[in-house]
Structure formats: structure tokens, C-alpha cells
């Protein structure tokens, strides 16, 4: 494998790995701890974190898509695996962008009463993003 091929795979793995790691940490450590410590006030903190969280995911998602396209064009990634990698990344990216652009404004304007309803939707979208990013990360090694 060429130096460029190795660099592309490192960047792809790093972007997918950081994205997945960020989602897992926030979902299973950061947010639950915030709710345990702050109780009812945790919604305000989580709402303040969400814009940065989704922006982080979007940047990593666009990076992963771009690198996957270049790696595929250079023959670095297996063509069959690439048929699945790119759509998986795009699904995660779409879930992230939707949550940021459509769901986040609703969560912020709904206040504490509406937070629970929109939070459930964000959990589902986050689960979809986690699952698809994990799948893309695994497939990038075939």
C-alpha cells in the first residue's frame, strides 16, 4: 500500500473512530452524569452541548465521506465494502444534520416540558448514527 493509501485509511479510521467515540461517551457517560448531578436543570446543559455535539459529528462525517470517496477512487478500499461504507456514513451524517437543523431548534423552543418528547427522537437518531458509523468503521477494514 502506498503512503497516500495508508494516510487515507488513517484519516478515515480517525474520523469514524472519533465520531463513534464522541457519541458513545456523550450518550453513556456525559449526558447521564449530567442528569444525575443536575436533575431537572440538566436539560439546559444538554441543550447547550447539543449544537457543538452535532457540529462535531457533521465535520467528522463530511471528512469521512470525502476520504472514503478518494480512497475508493484510489483503490485503497475494497470495492464491495465501499458499496456499504459510503451509504452508512451518509445515513449517519443525515441523522446528525437532521437532528441539528430540525430537531435541535424544536428542543430549544419547547422548554422543559417538550424536552422529553424531542429527547426521545434525538436518542433514536443518535442510535442510528452510532450503529451506522460503527458498521462503516468495521467495513473499512475489509
Q: Mind sketching the topology for me?
A:
Layout (H helix, E strand, L loop, with lengths): L2 H36 L3 H32 L5 H61 L3
Please explain how this structure is put together.
With 142 residues, the chain is mainly alpha-helical. Helix content is 91%, strand content 0%. The chain contains three helices and no strands. α2 (42-73) runs antiparallel to α3.
Short overview:
The protein is mainly α and 142 residues long. The protein has helices spanning 3-38, 42-73, 79-139.
* Coarse morphology: elongated
Radius of gyration: 17 Å
Q: Give me the count of strands.
A: 0
* Share of helix, binned: over 70%
Q: Mean pLDDT, nearest integer?
A: 92
Percentage of β-strand residues: under 5%
Helix segment count? 3
| N-to-C span | 14 Å
The residue ranges in which pLDDT falls below 50 over 5 or more consecutive positions are: none
Topology order in helix (H) and strand (E) letters: HHH
Q: Structural class given helices, strands, pairing?
A: mainly alpha
The largest pleated sheet is described as: none
Amino acid at each position: 500500500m502506498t503512503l497516500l493509501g495508508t494516510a487515507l485509511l488513517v484519516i478515515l479510521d480517525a474520523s469514524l473512530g472519533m465520531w463513534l467515540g464522541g457519541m458513545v461517551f456523550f450518550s453513556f457517560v456525559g449526558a447521564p452524569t449530567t442528569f444525575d448531578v443536575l436533575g431537572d436543570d440538566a436539560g439546559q446543559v444538554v441543550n447547550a452541548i447539543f449544537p457543538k455535539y452535532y457540529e462535531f459529528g457533521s465535520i467528522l462525517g463530511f471528512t469521512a465521506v470525502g476520504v472514503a470517496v478518494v480512497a475508493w477512487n484510489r483503490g485503497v478500499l475494497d470495492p464491495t465494502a465501499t458499496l456499504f461504507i459510503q451509504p452508512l456514513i451518509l445515513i449517519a451524517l443525515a441523522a446528525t444534520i437532521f437532528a441539528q437543523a430540525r430537531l435541535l431548534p424544536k428542543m430549544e423552543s419547547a422548554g422543559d416540558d417538550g424536552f422529553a418528547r424531542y429527547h426521545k427522537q434525538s436518542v433514536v437518531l443518535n442510535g442510528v448514527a452510532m450503529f451506522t458509523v460503527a458498521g462503516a468503521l468495521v467495513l473499512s477494514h475489509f
